[in-house]
Amino acid sequence: MANTVGVNKLSVVTKDSHGVTMAFPDVCKTPGPAGPIPIPYPNVAKSSDSAKTADSVTVAGKPLCVKDSNFSTSTGDEAGTAGGGVASSKTQGKAEFVNFSFDVKAEGRNVARALDLMLHNDKNTPPFPLMQPPVVALGEREEKLKCPCCGEPRR
């Protein structure tokens, strides 16, 4: 379903907003012949893995992501099994929002939007934006397209 709700001209993030964020590099310690080797991996997180969303506010029936929300799992660094990320010591860690709307809140927490920056793998990557479809403006209904005086279609 298209995103029809926006905040500050950006689409809001929900569990069903088809948001994806890709970060690089996610440098993880990877097994090597002479010991762990730090190797950069791409890292991907999706809004379908949203956690800590707003309890009472939904958009099209789906939970809304706010300031403290995260994407519970990120993928791509699974091979870094010799100690995980160089900063987080984890693989497949959560992705967290760095930016959000400063003036629109739900349940007292700032609302997350498309293009807001996120950190992946428990803060083991540089910040990257969340990409998702834009807000789609729905067209007017047929009855609104007629002249209110004569009932003829508007031209």
Give a structural overview:
This protein is mostly beta strands. The protein has one domain. The protein is built from no helices and 15 strands. It has strands spanning 6-7, 10-11, 20-30, 37-46, 50-51, 58-59, 62-63, 70-71, 74-75, 84-85, 95-97, 105-106, 109-110, 117-119, 128-129. The strands form 5 sheets. A 5-stranded antiparallel sheet has the order 5-8-11-14-15, with no helix packed on it. A hairpin with a 2-residue loop joins strand 6 and strand 7. The protein starts with 5 loop residues before the first strand and ends in a 26-residue tail after the last strand. Residues 70-91 are annotated as: Disordered. Pfam families: Tox-PAAR-like. This is DUF4150 domain-containing protein.
